[in-house]
Design goal:
By secondary structure, the protein is α+β, with helices and mostly antiparallel strands. The chain is about 35% helix and about 25% strand. The protein is built from 15 helices and 20 strands. A hairpin with a 2-residue loop joins β9 and β10. The longest helix is centred in the N-terminal third of the chain and has 28 residues. It is globular, with a radius of gyration of 28 Å. The two termini are about 40 Å apart.
């Protein structure tokens, strides 16, 4: 029997199911209201314009308009209440169940064995009424997530902790419960209260309460990093790529306007506004997107891994563990180097970034200092180990810097990112056909990771744990075959990385070592420590 069929067989009884928070229809219904008003308004735009222009709007017409709007609201409320009334959820020892029962019955099931990560999202409208969404990511492809929307803030945090315990296998099973207690798998959760706040929160001052809502502050776990807003704003001004994008948008908009005025084709019409407004908003949108994804960022080390919170209008809290990380990137734009700031992002197999309420949900340190970088890497990153002696590992044209031979993994990575490329050991593009990358790219191998540094204006260090590698492919085009270079594609869950234009002998040696990792290292997925047992092929 498949895993999902087994979960259906263990479907909890009716008493274990609970409806979502009673305010859920308000959060989900406003979109329907706005959509219906927009549709009706656009379809009757000429009629409305004629009424306003000819002054035909009177008390009777206003009454009819108000009656029409009221009808739209009633229809939207009905559409919002029906899904809420027919949808229930249950959290048991078998996993998380979401059931919709109306004319037919449908289920969304998150078996505890497949739970990969759990996030708490708070869209803007939900935050206004104190609600949250719990997003449960599953290991797999496609639409591999189950959403619990919406719950009170306290209930969402409780379920978040419970589901994480289920995924780790720490939840109390029926056999471990005291005699006479109801089985955990059939014990219903406490119903949602009318107010989502704890009783003690009512004693907070207005300022403390507003700050708690704005930053979704929590105090569980050891604080690793807290990014002040002033640093985020300063970092935007020092990001050359962002400034170039802004300048390009403004210049292209100005050229279009000047050309339109010169040709006499520009008129202040609705069509002109529809064409120019998106272009003018592109730059501010880029800035706001970066600000939104970094605002109020806080990361803490908890028993369930690193918990990262971010978001200005829409907020999100993610839990990440070293076992889920497939790849990590540490980047440093040119003007950040004098400030000692770093940007860290990770890729995980279960993190669904396309549907997140905030962009860059994989960022675990937006604008961090060296101390915050060390604390984050120490608590989250799988170990890299020392650089190994390998046929593809060659010293640079200068003596290797002592900074690269740091006493810790974090020091090694910081040194590899900061020192000149000519001082780094490893293989790199060598031919004149790669005029930029041969001075900026370098690829090295440590005992437990593949390390690659790329970029000039923005240096990026990519770290791929060797036991996360799923496949390696070596390729040569006609030009590469002529000059003696080759490319390697390293595949991991959820993505791939390309090592380009390195000597063919180095490519063959790397491909052999990484191929052995892909064939053997991933067998030890249940080991208690990252260093035990020793990775096969770890010396090469």
């Amino acid at each position: 029997m498949s895993e999902e069929n087994a979960a259906v067989r263990n479907d909890p009884p009716e008493s274990a199911y609970t409806r979502f928070h009673p305010l859920t229809p308000i959060v989900t219904g406003w979109k329907v209201i706005v959509g219906l008003i927009a549709i009706v308004g656009f379809q009757n735009f000429d009629l409305i314009e004629d009424l306003v222009t000819n002054g035909v709007v009177n008390t009777e017409n206003l009454g009819l308009i108000a009656l029409g709007i009221a009808g739209i609201v009633v229809v939207a409320v009905l559409f919002a209440i029906l899904p809420w009334w027919t949808t229930k959820y249950a959290v048991t020892d078998e996993g998380v169940f979401v059931r919709r029962k109306f004319l037919s019955t449908s289920r969304r099931i998150a078996p505890r064995q497949r739970i990969d990560s759990v996030s708490v999202e708070r869209p803007f409208v939900a935050r206004l009424v104190g609600l949250s969404k719990v997003k449960i990511e599953l290991a797999g492809a496609g639409e591999s997530h189950v959403d619990l929307e919406y719950l009170g803030r306290v209930k969402a945090e409780d379920i978040h902790s419970t589901v994480l315990e289920l995924a780790r296998g720490d939840a109390q099973t029926a056999e471990q419960m005291p005699a006479g207690a109801a089985p955990a798998e059939y014990a219903p959760l406490a119903p949602e209260s009318e107010g989502p706040s704890r009783v003690e929160e009512s004693t907070q001052s207005i300022g403390e309460r507003a700050k708690s809502i704005a930053f979704d502050s929590d105090s569980d776990g050891e604080l690793l990093a807290r990014i002040p807003t002033s640093r985020v704003l300063h970092s935007l001004l020092l990001d050359i790529s962002l400034m170039i994008g802004m300048a390009f948008t403004l210049v292209m908009t100005a050229v279009w306007l000047i050309g339109s005025f010169a040709s006499g084709e520009f008129t202040f019409s609705a069509a002109s506004l529809f064409a120019i407004v998106p272009a003018l908003l592109a730059g501010p949108r880029m800035i706001f997107s970066r600000l939104e994804s970094s605002w109020g960022f806080t990361s803490r080390a908890t028993s369930a891994g690193l918990r990262a919170r971010r978001g200005l209008i829409n907020s999100r809290s993610d839990n990440l563990t070293a076992a889920k990380i497939q790849q990590a990137e540490i980047s440093q734009p040119l003007l950040w180097r004098s400030r000692g700031w770093f940007d860290v992002s990770v890729s995980t197999a279960g993190m669904d970034e396309l549907e997140s309420v905030t962009e860059s949900s994989g960022r675990i340190l937006p604008v961090g200092t060296a101390s915050e970088l060390d604390a984050t890497l120490t608590h989250l990153m799988p170990p890299t180990g020392d650089l190994v002696h390998h046929r593809a590992m060659r010293d640079g044209s200068e003596a290797p810097s002592a900074a690269v031979l740091g006493v810790s993994d974090a020091a090694l990575l910081r040194g590899f990112l900061s020192v000149p490329q000519s001082q780094l050991p490893g293989t790199r593009p060598f031919h004149w056909t790669s005029p930029i990358s041969r001075h900026t790219h370098v690829y090295a191998l440590s005992r437990h990771a593949l390390i690659a540094r790329t970029g000039w204006l923005k240096r990026t260090l990519t770290v791929i744990p060797r036991d996360r590698i799923q496949g390696v492919e070596i390729s040569q085009g006609p030009i590469a075959l002529r000059i003696g270079s080759a490319d390697i594609t390293v595949a991991y869950a959820g993505g791939s990385f390309h090592v380009s234009d390195i000597p063919v002998a180095d490519a063959a040696a790397l491909c052999a070592s990484l191929g052995a990792d892909a064939g053997t290292s991933r067998r030890f997925t249940e080991r208690g420590s990252w260093l035990e047992p020793r990775l096969l092929g770890g010396t090469a």
